[in-house]
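Suppose a colleague, Dr. K., hands you the sequence of a protein chain of 299 amino acids and asks what its three-dimensional shape might be. Before reaching for any lab equipment, you can write down a predicted structure in token form. Begin with the sequence itself:
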Amino acid sequence: QGIPDLAYYVTAVSRSGTESQPSNTITVDQRLRLQAPTSLSTTSLNGAIHLSWSDNAYQADPSAFKQYRVYSTSYSLDQNLCGAQWVLEGTTVSPEFLAAALPNGVSRCFGVSAESVEGYESLWSPIREDTPRPDARNVLLYTYAANSAYSGFRFYQDVNGDGQVNPGELGIVMAGDNPAADFWLYRDSTGALFMVPQRTGTEVAVYGSAPVSDLTSIDYAPDSGYSASAIEAVPGYGYVFQMDGGDGYYRYGAVRVTDVSPDYIIFDWSYQTDPGNPELDIHGGMSFAADTGLVVKRK
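The predicted structure, expressed as tokens, is then:
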């Protein structure tokens, strides 16, 4: 009771509903509570999620600030719902945090609070959900003319047939004429290099209209603009591949080209193992892709 002060006490209730006398009363001054972080953003990584948030709690009162507290819980992409059992991921004095050792393809919700030197905890930041996904750096892919055996690429292939993502089933370089390749590399008569979608149901779209600074900048698969036509590999640009998973759900992979030579490209890639999840930095509910019957999970 009281504003800005709040008085608290504790009672015990028996199974029959009888309530005990109250304990002693303590008073908590809400003015000692710090501001909640006003924003929270996340970046999908391989087995991890990087979080960053506004530093307003510290900036508003540096002498009262102790630390930030980072929480997480499970997330149902299909229901667009966070779980009820929140756990403390850790604490930090910086407005960023790396939640590591997370399983790829498993979504989680995150929230952040600020704690004062007296131990009072703020309200939480906005809640964000995200999903770790595999990635790799500096993959070399030759043109078909230069080295056909190493001119094709497959983001993920269930070699073991167990429906699980196992070592050796991700980021496979293969022959460019292998029908299992998601795309292969072609050099035209002008010397330009093109990524050519190959596997049935695979299409590609350029990400944005300008180069991207890093693979992690490709955060969410576009809603449209995909084509089965060849697309030129340009250094610094990002590309998103939309692939038929064979189970009624799309799969999504991203490529950022780092170097282009006359005979090969070097690129970074990521792949979302969660079926239908367009998050190369995820946030989803569900909708249906027009004219395909395949499901895309969207927010």
